[in-house]
Amino acid sequence: MRPTRHAVVLGGGLAGTLAAAALARHLEKVTIVERDVLPDGPEPRRGVPQARHSHLLWSGGARAIETLLPGTTDALLAAGARRIGLPSGLVLLTAHGWMRRWPETQFMIACSRDLLDWVVRRQALAQPGVVLRQGLRGVEPVGTAERITGVRVRDEASGETSVLEADLVVDASGRASRAGRWLTDLGLPPVHEMVVDSGLAYATRIFRAPPAAGKDFPVITVQADPRDGRPGRGGVLLPIEGERWLVTISGTRGGEPPTDEEHFLEFARRLRSPVVAELVEDAEPLTPIHGSHSTANRRRYFERLRAWPDGFVVIGDAVAAYNPVYGQGMSVLAGGAVAIGEILGRHGLRPGTARRLQRALARPVAGAWKTATGQDVLFPDVVGPRPSSVDRLLLRYVDRLFETALSRRAAAEAFIDMLTLSAPMGRLIGPKALLAAVRGPAAPPPSEPPLTADELTRARGTAGNAP
Ligand SMILES: Cc1cc2nc3c(=O)[nH]c(=O)nc-3n(C[C@H](O)[C@H](O)[C@H](O)COP(=O)(O)OP(=O)(O)OC[C@H]3O[C@@H](n4cnc5c(N)ncnc54)[C@H](O)[C@@H]3O)c2cc1C
């Protein structure tokens, strides 16, 4: 009889649970090792502090999750998440002006990150063969530079260590992953790492939505204009479960948002449009204001190592984390987990598979990295390499396409496909998008936020003088 094939996944965050779901279709047993004790409900926890801030799950990511765990979207909607059509349900101020609310071509799932994680975890743990070991920390992989055979773990309560044997160890331990260090300890060369840091900071508060706002209230986003030479300041109003509005304000170095009550709304009011502040200024705050500075773009090029140990793979933020303004991290890692399943299905777990997996995981990362760092390098005092002349040319084209997207539907569709990670970057240079960009804007953008009269009336439950 074939011995049981066992994978250990380090980290029970989104990357870990989705990787486990993908692996469970091909291996008999998958153990998720998570250092936190996980809540039995949509509640905050220590290991994912960014969960307090707005988390947009684009249709590209939602589809990937659905492929791995069918029924997850319905489970999220049943728990109060909203499905928001895009761009019809998006009130977006871009660097070039307000975007028209073109008919829906994509969508997003709007909910708290706590709800998303809980629902996905519940679905993943219901897969045959998936086991969760909580309160257990992954210390280091065990094996050689040629082959990893397990992982040393430590019980967070007792301090006892032991080894879990595995055919595959997946590191999904997030931004603070020590995978690079583990590989050099095994004798492999250092992993090249790139950081582009605009000094972006986030501040977030949840408000009670006006009772009349309804379940189809749009997402409001005010973006910075990187061309004005000032720190980039922006804001998002995200309708989430429980008839609540989650408001995140953000700013790059020199323009960081305040985390005190007195100045939170004042900052929102002084954005390129005051719409977010005006919608919530009379709303009841339900939480304190939470800040975050863990927003630098950080990419580790594991796929470039000449040698790679069999039985070891790194996924999620442990590979690349991005400026969160574009909301890419979760959708990219979900696509990566799908790739894990496809490659295991095609090649099985044999010598060379881990390396193949690591290379496949780098592909979706590359496009997201370009999106996130492309704009960031334009802000003042950014730390990181300057863009090459090819990158600058690409940026000019993309900028033109985005400007055209405000008034030409073909450009808007390409932009939304790219934003929602529903198509590769190549979509931006498809024939229709290219033609639209060459023709350029067809009309000036709307001068006011494109909220309907009905939406404004519904919002007036708390915003007497809403825009
Ligand atoms: C402020 C902010 C806003 C964001 N907004 C968005 C957004 O709008 N849309 C989007 O798609 N993405 C967004 N992101 C990115 C998103 O949060 C990440 O891409 C995603 O959480 C990465 O998941 P992960 O599982 O790789 O890592 P994490 O979510 O960091 O999970 C890592 C897990 O590993 C556990 N762990 C760590 N070390 C160990 C260990 N040694 N042993 C065992 N367990 C361990 C941790 O407890 C945790 O459970 C945002 C990020 C930030 C910082």
Q: Count all strands and give the number.
A: 21
Beta strand % = 15-25%
Helix content: 25-40%
- Molecules bound to protein: flavin-adenine dinucleotide
Which CATH class of the largest domain applies here? Alpha Beta
Low-confidence stretches: 462-467
CATH topology of the largest domain: FAD/NAD(P)-binding domain
Strand order in space, largest sheet: 6-5-15-16-17-14-18
> What is the CATH-assigned architecture of the largest domain?
3-Layer(bba) Sandwich
In total, the number of domains comes to 3
The CATH homologous superfamily name of the largest domain equals FAD/NAD(P)-binding domain
Structural class: alpha+beta
First and last CA, distance: 70 Å
What is the residue-averaged pLDDT?
94
Main pleated-sheet profile: 7 strands, mixed
Q: Report the total helices.
A: 13
Radius of gyration based on Cα positions: 22 Å
Give the SSE map.
Layout: E1 6-10, H1 14-24, E2 29-34, E3 56-58, H2 59-68, H3 72-78, E4 82-86, E5 90-94, E6 97-98, E7 106-110, H4 113-125, E8 130-134, E9 136-143, E10 148-155, E11 161-165, E12 168-171, H5 179-185, E13 193-196, E14 201-208, E15 219-222, E16 233-240, E17 244-251, H6 261-269, H7 275-280, E18 290-292, E19 297-300, E20 312-314, E21 320-321, H8 329-347, H9 353-376, H10 389-405, H11 409-419, H12 431-439, H13 453-459
